[in-house]
Design a protein that fits this description.
Number of helices: 25
Family: Belongs to the MscS (TC 1.A.23) family.
Largest sheet: 5 strands, antiparallel
Structural class: alpha+beta
Shape: elongated
Domain Mechanosensitive ion channel MscS C-terminal: 708-788
Subcellular location: Cell membrane
Number of domains: 6
Keywords: Cell membrane, Membrane, Signal, Transmembrane, Transmembrane helix
Strand order of the largest sheet: 4-3-2-1-5
Domain Mechanosensitive ion channel transmembrane helices 2/3: 588-629
Radius of gyration: 42 Å
Length: 795
């Protein structure tokens, strides 16, 4: 089984604790005078020899392994060895950089032998060179040790896989066969001696802790561990619950925080109690190899059982149904309540007995019988859980109560678990005990992974919703700081929540299916990065520190662009002689260039090296050639429109039968507002490549108000001409220069056609002017008794 919590504690201790015989970079002495050469070497040859002996011992230990579970301990030790090598390498890199810089200051050896050089400079160069050579040789040795250890990890994975396949395919006696139980009911003399040896060693360790003079201290430590395990857990859970209720905002975030606090309180207090128990019995006498192996495995089992009970209690929340995260009906939650504790107790007792059998090195018959007993009991517990839960779920549906959310997913899990239990029981009946044990352990591991990641996903989702809520202090601060609209905050919250939960879901899937039985946290992370393209990420130099710098660069850059954009639009540009269209174009161009620079700055802060992005450029070039050429053409056309400005915001244009005012010039397309206030989106490439009529280009365009009227043949043309001319001249919007003109356009049997043309100050008022003129002309024609020609009747 996997025991991620122990691995996390081990990694944290390794990262923050000082290993024996190792010096940190902070312990290196500084150069006090110009004549001092450099800090002394922090890794001595004895340290390298110790590392080599550790690696050789691990290789020898692994070569003697004949059991799948026996590889878990050496695998953790190899991971620890790799961390030690990395720490030593990191402590030497600053010294190597310092030595190179000092040698660069001194310069190379003069080529001219006759050139005089001070003896102290030559001696200092020689000493620095020797020191640098030692550091380079040490780093080279450490790199070779790391490569060897990495290869050993790969070999362990292969051995584990082969042993697992062998164990799963191993056919032994059925649980119905009396010979299956005989090694347990009547163990051999050798097995009895091995068990007696184990308990004798345990008795010696306990006796050393209980010897006269130590009994009071031992009793106090045991009592303290018991208090922390029981009362301490309750106090820690109540304290964290009080903090969540009184410090967390009311809503979903408080509910998910309460569940997470319950799990953390249980795991941390039990972890402290276990460490205290370990110290109690080992402070006087170190553990023997047999007991040390047992203690490591027992710790993993204890943490597994604690996670089972704590996650179940936090998610079921039978005492406070309103705190429950999954949408489970109360009868379903109550039916599930007793099973986690029962399962945890069975695993703690049964797996502990199996670990005693393995640590004592008992016969294979006893080992198989122990595995079969645990697998059988766990299978019966899980099968009873599934049957009872299924019955309650059906009763809930019939009663009309709200069933649990995600019925499809819950039904899928129920089906998979039921099928797994059937296979496990069949394997026990047919003699494939190791297969049954593997299935039951995987179900328990799946429970831990799904519940743990579900809790993390809910906490992350609720945190995003609260931090970017327009009602929360953080959301109001972001809105005021960055000038973000309410809907933008909601979009950011949704995007971050979706990306985060997708990442956690991917991690859960990888953890569930790729980790393998007994995988530690270091191995799990290695598998995750290999699947997610860890090598590619390392080539791009993407590390957590760079991610933080990139995030800050992106946020600060966006804030500066928005602030400077508002300053340009509201303060600087209005004080210039530029027209509004030019100001809008400059603001848009500034924003586009600014965002491009922010993206480049973010990638640079991320540590992305452009030489490693050649494949991206190649892919983009192919995409541009086949599918993105129109987008690129419109983008380039937009830049041309913003720089050359053949049209600008506010111009009245006509193109392809569309006539209206330009309201916005974007990077890809231009928005044209028609007379009915509707918007037409025209690609920028059309404004560059097609014939376009810009009515207002230059600011001096005039509108033409032309009317064409047909009169009967018997009218006085001069009278009508004077009437039309006077009407135009007297209208306030008709310009005096050029003066209105009345022309004789056409003479037909139907009548005389006269055309009158006048100019107005702007093309935008042509239509309203023509309307006013028509009303006035018809009024004057009626007063003069002149009628318009009537159309000839059709045959």
């Amino acid at each position: 089984m996997r025991h991620a919590l122990k691995a996390m504690i081990f990694v944290a201790f390794t990262l923050f604790g000082a290993g024996p015989g190792m010096l940190s970079a902070a312990d290196q002495p500084e150069i006090s005078t110009p004549r001092a050469v450099a800090a002394p070497l922090t890794v001595s040859p004895s340290d390298l020899q110790t590392l080599q002996l550790r690696l050789d011992s691990l290789k020898q230990q692994i070569s003697l392994v004949d059991n799948f579970n026996q590889l878990e301990g050496p695998q953790d030790l190899v991971q620890m060895f790799l961390l030690d090598v990395d720490r030593l390498t990191a402590s030497l890199l600053p010294l190597q950089t310092q030595l190179r810089a000092q040698l660069g200051v001194l310069g190379p050896v003069p080529l001219d032998d006759t050139a005089a050089e001070q003896s102290d400079i030559a001696a200092q160069r020689k000493a620095l060179t020797e020191q640098k050579n030692k550091v380079d040789a040490t780093l080279k040795t450490l790199a070779a040790l790391k490569t060897s250890a990495t290869d050993l990890i790969t070999q362990i994975a292969g051995i584990r896989r082969n042993l697992l396949e062998s164990e799963l395919s191993l056919s032994t006696r059925s649980i119905l066969n009396p010979d299956f139980w005989s090694p347990v009911m009547a163990p051999s003399m050798d097995d009895r001696l091995r068990v007696r040896m184990f308990f004798d060693q345990a008795t010696q360790v306990a006796g050393a802790a209980w010897q006269p003079g130590q009994r009071l201290y031992t009793s106090a430590l045991l009592l303290l561990a018991l208090v922390i395990w029981t009362l301490g857990r309750r106090l820690a859970e109540r304290g964290l619950t009080w903090l969540c209720i009184h410090r967390m905002p009311e809503g979903r975030l408080r509910r998910s925080s309460l569940a997470l606090a319950s799990v953390l309180a249980t795991v941390l207090t039990v972890g402290v109690a276990l460490q205290l128990l370990f110290y109690t019995f080992t402070r006087q006498t170190p553990l023997t190899p047999m007991l040390n192996t047992f203690s490591q495995e027992f710790e993993k089992v204890a943490y597994t059982c604690v996670l089972i009970t704590s996650l179940s209690r936090a998610l079921l929340s039978t005492q406070h149904p309103s705190w429950r995260l999954p949408a489970l009906a109360d009868p379903v939650a109550l039916s599930l309540k007793p099973y986690p504790r029962t399962l945890a107790a069975v695993l703690l007792v049964g797996v502990t007995m199996n670990q005693i059998i393995n640590a004592a090195g008992m016969s294979s018959g006893v080992v198989i019988a122990g595995r079969g007993i645990v697998a059988m009991v766990v299978s019966f517990i899980l099968l009873d859980l599934l049957l009872r839960t299924g019955k309650v779920r059906r009763a809930v549906v019939v009663a009309g109560e709200a069933p649990e959310a995600g019925r499809t997913f819950a039904g899928l899990l129920y089906t998979i678990a039921s099928l797994a239990m059937v296979i496990s029981l069949l394997a026990l009946l047919t003699g494939y005990v190791s297969l049954a044990r593997f299935i039951t352990y995987e179900l328990v591991w799946g429970f831990l992974v799904l519940c743990g990641f579900y809790l993390l996903m809910q906490c992350f989702k609720d945190a995003c919703e609260y931090l970017f809520s327009i009602k929360s202090p953080s959301g109001k601060a972001l809105k005021q700081l960055l000038g973000i609209e309410d809907r933008r905050l909601e979009q950011i919250s949704t995007i971050l929540s979706g990306v985060g939960r997708a990442g956690l879901l991917l991690m859960a899937i990888i953890t569930l299916f790729v980790g393998g039985v007994g995988t530690t946290l270091g191995q799990l992370l290695s598998n995750v990065f290999s699947i997610l393209g860890g090598a590619g990420l390392r080539k791009l130099n993407i590390i957590p520190g760079h991610l933080l710098n990139a995030t800050l660069a992106l946020l600060v850059g966006i804030y500066l662009i928005r602030t400077l954009g508002r300053w340009l639009d509201k303060e600087l540009l209005p004080k210039t002689e530029m027209d509004p269209g030019m100001r809008a174009s400059l603001t848009t161009l500034f924003a586009n260039i600014g965002y491009a620079l922010v993206i480049l700055m973010t990638l640079s802060s991320l540590g992305v090296q452009w030489t490693n992005l050649a494949w991206i450029v190649s892919a983009l070039s192919v995409g541009i050639g086949f599918g993105l050429q129109e987008i690129v053409k419109n983008f380039v056309s937009g830049l041309i429109l913003l720089t050359e400005r053949p049209v600008k915001v506010g111009d009245l244009i006509s193109i392809s039968g569309v006539e209206g005012d330009i309201r916005r010039i974007n990077v890809r397309a231009t928005e044209i507002q028609l007379s009915d206030r509707s918007i037409v989106i025209v690609p920028n490439s059309q404004l560059i490549s097609q014939n376009l009529r810009n009515v207002t280009l230059g600011g001096s365009a005039q509108g033409v108000a032309t009317l064409e009227l047909t009169f009967p043949l018997d009218i006085d043309p001069e009278q009508v001409k004077d009437l039309l001319y006077d009407t135009y001249c007297e209208h306030e919007t008709i310009l005096d220069k050029p003066a209105p003109v009345v022309r004789f356009s056409k003479l037909t049997p139907e009548g005389i056609t006269l055309t009158i043309t006048g100019y107005v100050g702007s093309p935008r008022i042509v239509s309203i002017t023509k309307s006013d003129l028509l009303f006035e002309i018809l009024k004057r024609l009626g007063a003069a008794g002149i009628e318009l020609a009537k159309p000839a009747p059709t045959a």
